[in-house]
Structure prediction request, 245 residues.
Amino acid sequence: MSDIILVCILCIVVSSVFGQSTVNKCSTQCDTMKLDHLTLEMCRDAKKILPRPKVGDFCSNAMEQGYSDACMDLCMGKIPVSRQAQSCRHASMEMPRPTVRRWCEHGYAQGFGVTRRALATYFVDQAVESQRAAEDEAAKAAEEAEARSARKLVATIPITLDDKVVDLKLHEGESAEEAVVSFCQEWLGDDVAGCIRELLPTVMTRIDDNAQSRATKAAASSETAEKEEKEEEGAGADEAEHEGA
Prediction:
């Protein structure tokens, strides 16, 4: 029973964290675009009304609140809901009445309306573009992986990751840097840069060692073949001399 309660609490915490992350992201994005949609013209007349700057400030603050309410709802995938009454409740108690309240409502309506129209499909289009870009990136990665697997395998270097060993494969025509980048992207995507910094020197050393080892074996093999060839030539000469005698 206690395990079930713990799991439920964990789910609530995770959901809260992801929800807060979305709110923060939308808040930052909406703040960035604010000046693209709000203008001084929206509350210009309010700033001429006495007492100044009180009436104009109520209008401007409400305009920004209207923008924020519409933008945040749209960003989070909701239908924009006007909160004009709540936003201007305090203004209804300010003097002169009802002047302050009316200009507050005017500012809110201006900000909310223009934002709802201007950003009606903005976040949906942005999400579609992001999804398309992610799909294109995944397709590109799959094509690159397929192309690598089709090339001849030149070397295999065992790499220890936590408690398991994974082979780093170097294919024909592929540099050590490219092989390390591909390996790190596949197995340590959360810290690709750190993975490359740590692995590249080791991989380069092992490749050099393998190359030297292959060169030594090739030289030894060549020397053995040459020796055998000389021995065969010497044996042939002795046999020819014996036959002549």
Summary: Confidence is low (pLDDT under 50) at residues 3-18. The first strand starts at residue 153 and ends at 161. The chain has two domains: 34-125, 141-237.
